[in-house]
Amino acid sequence: MLKATEITPAHLYSFKGGLKLKHHKRDSLDNGLSQSSIPDKLYLSLRINRGNIANPIVAVGDNVLKGQVIAKPDTTNGSYIHASSSGKVTAIGIRETASPNADYATVIEITTDKKDQWCTIAKTHSITEAIKSAGIVGMGGAGFPTHLKYQGNNIHTLIINGAECEPYISCDEQLMLDYPNDLIDGITLMMKAADAEQAIFALEDQVGGIKSQIDKIIAKRKIEHIVVVKVPTIYPAGGEKQLIKVLTGLEVPSGGLPLDLGIIVQNVGTAKALADYCKHGRPLLERIITVAGDAIGKPQNFSALTGTPISHLLQQAEFDKDKTERLVIGGPMMGYAMPNCDIGIDKTSNCILALSHENTQHHGDSLPCIRCGKCVEVCPSQLLPQQLHWYIKGENLEKAREHHLFDCIECGACAWVCPSQIKLVDYYRYAKSEINYLDYKRTKSDAAQIRHEQREGRLLKIKQERIAKRKRTKHRSKNPDKMKQDLQATLDRVKKAKEQKNEPK
Ligand code: SF4
Ligand code: SF4
């Protein structure tokens, strides 16, 4: 592996597959960063992504202050949850959450007093302890508790991920524009905690003057061993494994972690969160989130408290409900459709996207797979997406696992190009959650809470999907012309795919 200082565009590698996508980031960036107001209610989920569960240490009726720990992790793998503003705990129960793999989880509802009154934050003695006390998790989407990455491993390189590759999402770019000094402070602290020799700060080559701005700060502060590198804008270059490949040429082994290569990858937001705690004593209570899409009157980035309801942010961004066909948390590729707007954002929520019918990719129901192979060509994890789909459809989950289902990064590139409009990622997510559930059952682990919440969530989702499908069919039968148009469009897509398949090479 090259030294960070020796990396030039000519020394970059490429990963297999990927897509070139339109960015749609300018609108939100042009409107700049706004401070969201404090909502009447905060909904703080006690589960962030897979397995990261905390147990409440407050009860309904308790008064809480901003920064107060309200839930503690049940294992070393979790992270603390803090009250993001002051007020009263008015409910604790299972609700829908913004977390990708935890549709349902225990949520603490705080009715705010709008005073935003802080508690006293205890001092910590080491950076790793600070990361844990601040409740810092990976803010790029994975939500992995950050302190677990700094546990005496042999780390030589820290990669700072500023390659925000999904269309519409611009929260990281906004953060780099507005807080470059805090960012460098955070990176320096992380290097110290990991005892890393070098840090590579990766940006997409489509970003404007951020590189020169950060280069200037590094030079002015005479910081050594942090190098800013621009990488080609190909989706999903910001995926952890893909970014490592592009920068170093190294491949994270199947089922392995970057730590196996002596590398830690951290999102820019995570670095700033650490600086906020170490410099200002502020735990992770707030994050930048993009609110965008063609059904948003004023697309922009908000600095918002964790637990802020989606509806509260939409309202501030001039949301057009009638124009919206699809409301998503996350980007158009990896995001999740939201069943309602009274869901609180969490530490990993990077975008709320409201798209009209014209900008929604999947219309109508999926067709059978025609084995065109397009999904294989674009898969950055070198998987066989159609094969995985086949196994999962046949409930052959073990076969899907054998074919490296868990290497799937759920980037959505396969579903994006599929002419049959098969919602491939939904199959992979379902299979992963089902396999995890079966594994827990097999090992009789203490996952009763996860089982209960996930099953409740799935059952409700199935019910909601059935209702939506019924509505769609009803709508179509009332519009025979629309039905004909949809059918013709689907037939055209299949015909085109077949023609392309038969083209001589
Ligand atoms: S792109 Fe869709 S239709 Fe083509 S092989 Fe993959 S799953 Fe099948
Ligand atoms: S979602 Fe999974 S299978 Fe599909 S392209 Fe991405 S990594 Fe490959």
Can you describe what's shown?
This protein is an alpha/beta fold. Among the domains are: 4-27 and 127-280, Rossmann fold (3-Layer(aba) Sandwich); 374-502, no CATH class. 34% of the residues lie in helices and 17% in strands. It contains 15 helices and 17 strands. The protein has helices at residues 26-30, 127-133, 171-178, 180-194, 210-220, 240-248, 268-280, 310-316, 374-378, 385-393, 397-402, 413-417, 424-443, 448-478, 480-502; strands at residues 33-35, 41-45, 54-56, 63-64, 69-73, 81-82, 87-96, 104-112, 157-162, 198-204, 226-231, 263-267, 286-292, 300-305, 326-329, 336-337, 351-355. Strand 10 (198-204), helix 5 (210-220) and strand 11 form a beta-alpha-beta unit. Helix 4 packs across helix 7 (268-280) and helix 10 crosses helix 13. It is globular and about 65 Å long. The mean pLDDT is 89. One iron/sulfur cluster binds at residues 378-381, 383, 385, 408-414, 424-425, 428.
Instruction: Write down the overall mean pLDDT.
Output: 89
Please count the helical segments: 15
Second-tier CATH architecture of the domain at 4-27 and 127-280: 3-Layer(aba) Sandwich
The low-confidence runs, each spanning 5 or more residues with pLDDT under 50, are none
- Helix coverage percent of residues? 25-40%
Structural class by SSE content: alpha/beta
Radius of gyration: 23 Å
For the record, give the distance between the C-alpha atoms at the N and C termini, rounded to a whole number.
37 Å
Q: Judging from the principal axes of the Cα atoms, what is the shape?
A: globular
